[in-house]
Protein 1
Amino acid sequence: MRVLGIETSCDETGVALYDTALDGGNGLLADALYSQIAMHAEYGGVVPELASRDHTRKLLPLVEQVLADAGMTRHELDGIAYTAGPGLVGALMVGAATAHGMARALDIPALGVHHMEGHLLAPMLESDPPAFPFVALLVSGGHTQLVEVQGLGLYRLLGESVDDAAGEAFDKTAKMLGLAYPGGPEVARLAEQGDPQRFRFPRPMTDRPGLDFSFSGLKTHTLTALRKLEATGELSEQDRADIARAFEDAVVDTLAIKCRRALDETGLKRLVVAGGVSANVRLRARLDAACQKRRARAYYPRGRFCTDNGAMIAYVGAKRLAAGERDVTGQMHATPRWPLDQLGAPVPRQPQD
Ligand code: KG4
Ligand code: ZN
């Protein structure tokens, strides 16, 4: 089954083609991405209305591009998947309406998929994908979750952030340090020059049992450290780098402690790490070391599939469409809030169900 995947939940327009006949590392036929980051950077974060407008400009040209890259026409498509949530409602509606319009015209099924399920299964696009079951750490700009994954759609939430997501904490810290949006890669770059011994930030919620996270206190800690330094004179580049390093170490350590706990509690030996923050090099090194000690293994998406992309949506959509799941014809979905553990395994449906 050849499925077009469309991602428009936030500030990236992603489009890809996946073929279930070529599963196991070769199914991805083409993918293209347009990032709106430069446009939003001016405002220090995503402006929802501008995001929607830009998706409408970029989406159809990207669809044409991936079809051309794969040497296919739209008449060879068997289904269309789009991100139905969670995300910005206006941005989601651009993808949903385009998917349903195309599906109606081509008389093929459309299916709205969950953005975080896309992230969760992005490592399945690699040549050596993880087998079920596994523990997944989802770390993006909007979510920080630990999930026990038994199969497609079978997700048990083990823990999540009670306030800011890890990526959000990176973005806010970056702003305090005067760095550009999105802050994760910028903070990581600055932290490279930082002295890990100079400051020690807390590892929130690690001193008690449980798998929930809290990152908003770290933000206050960063601000306090900055204010203290500013009170003694002008902030040097080294000061900023030392703070970036202390912050990154605290987030990475906290995530690693909870992942170790999740592996021990579930007895599982595979850890999937996905979402934008999974691109963080220091996080990967820490998690690899933690897994090695337990004879477990960590799996990551390739760099460009850590952040938002169309490939992960095409993959999840293809799996679910191939199992017979589909939207009611003409009934599009845009669901800004959508808990991951409500998903369930694919349910075969008739177009009019
Ligand atoms: O998954 P994603 O592209 O979008 C959401 O679904 O939210 O994640 C974006 C987040 C941003 O907060 C960004 O700062 C963070 O991922 N991020 C990183 C790195 N690369 C991206 N955080 C830490 N280190 C990185 N290298
Ligand atoms: Zn995302």
Note: The mean pLDDT is 96.
Protein 2
Amino acid sequence: MPDQGKFDVIVVGAGFSGVYQLIRLREEGFKVHLLEAGAGLGGIWHWNCYPGARVDTHCEIYQFSRNELWSGWDWKERFPGWEEMRAYFDYVGEKLDVLKDVSLNSRVSKAKFNEVSNFWDLMTEDRRYLKTKFLIICTGFASKPFIPNIENQDAFKGEAHHTALWPQNGVDFSGKRIGVVGTGASGIQVAQEASKVAKNLTVFQRTPNMYLPMGQQKYTPDDNKRMKAELPERFRRRQECFGGFDFDFIPVSGASVTDAEREETYERLWKAGGFHFWLGTYHDVFTNESVNRTAYEFWKKKTRERIQDKELAEKLAPTDPPHPYAVKRPSLEQWYFEIFNYKNTDLVSLMEEPILRMSDNGIITSKKEYKFDVVVYATGFDAVTGGLTALDISDTDGIKLGERWSAGVKTYLGLATSKFPNMLMSYGPQAPTGFCNGPSSAEYQGECIIELLSFIRDKEFVRFEVEEIYEENWRSKIRELADQTLFPKADSWYMGANIPGKTREMLMYPGGLPKYLEEFRNCAD
Ligand code: FAD
């Protein structure tokens, strides 16, 4: 291969994780380069530019914790939209001169470890060849969009887009007939926007989703000033909290309090907005079925108050939950339930009326044909592992990563996988990832990577590798932890269950960020 660059470290992906690695490794004196498939920094915020795309962690902690960055940046909204996130990444890029070590529009298409040189050989889609001693994959949990295989899909003559592959110059919904397939975070965000301008909007729902009120707020310069005074403490708190947030579970059982006390707590959490009613509630909400049910009943009561039509209420907030409360990641909504009170908006429950196929005009269900100008696939991702297994990357036996993991993911600490020497992953499987605030994971797990690489460099080792026994133990630990919870009871992307044929297993480390960091500390020591 012609050599077009030789590095200590190559980082793949320019979201929070990759940018953090680049900045920190550069500071530690590594010769580092970053390859990013997209045309800008920001990771998912580059790709997800659909109408309404918005953060669901409050901005205070959905940013880097470096003083020189937050001190010079003011947020406009508590939950910023994609435009603001992009502007933030532009700011970070400029402030820290990130781009001088980044190749944009450079998708890594192939990676192979050279057993003789102990270097990785990398090839990009545009046929650049690079060599690196260490490879850090930061492809995120949402870089492989999933579109379900619907019969006759190509027949549709209108526009069809997945939310994460949205045209960068936008799609005009005004006066058009819009169909939205999927009702996770992206689906409801698009639907909220489309309902305002579309001629008509039809939302196709498979499973009712337990949306929480976002509690959006505009932030003034004074709000930002107040926020900045609190930030050092908020950032410090993250390492102590299960989800890397600045708040944590209530350390008492939801079963040990009176009904009135519980109701009062739930009211408070509900009013706080964001994820408080998820990761700030009683600690046993995910382990005790009856406590979980009280949370569901509260959620149902609050939600039904907002839906006028009784039949619709049953579809959106059923009498009995389809799965335990919030074992699928809840999405945050602003005016989602109200859109069904508008004349132009309808909900189709796919449980009652499954999609049979597409037609030239739109979508045919078991009941009728729905005609659209635009179909939006808000159908999520081959989450967590998809970005990794999409890479043409082989182990030292020549077996592709996707094949090695076909019967289940194998890693140690979610950081490394056997037979892939000198390779590490950030925000990948078997780590806190989907249970953790993204930037917190980028920084805390990121520091684990930096500590490991610095150690290896200082000891002048040329190669490191995980032994399979450690992977087996880590996998068992994750299974045991998951089995103590209600998470396996839902077909969620946490469980790999949203993708046909994917192994059903807990893809995250479900012990929380503090315990994860303890596990790393034990290993490092
Ligand atoms: P990403 O941001 O996903 O970045 C990965 C990058 O890798 C992408 O830019 C991609 O182009 C690049 N890449 C992939 N494959 C290749 C390749 N072969 N070659 C080169 N580059 C490649 N998390 C939260 O904590 N709070 C939130 O509010 C939140 N909101 C979200 C909203 C949406 C719409 C989505 C999709 C996810 C959200 N997440 C949220 C999760 C989010 O993934 C993390 O917050 C965070 O962005 C993860 O950063 P990352 O750097 O690990 O990965």
Note: Residues 12-18, 35-38, 43-44, 46, 48, 53, 55-57, 62, 107-108, 138-143, 186, 387, 391, 427, 437-438, 442 surround flavin-adenine dinucleotide (CB under 6 Å).
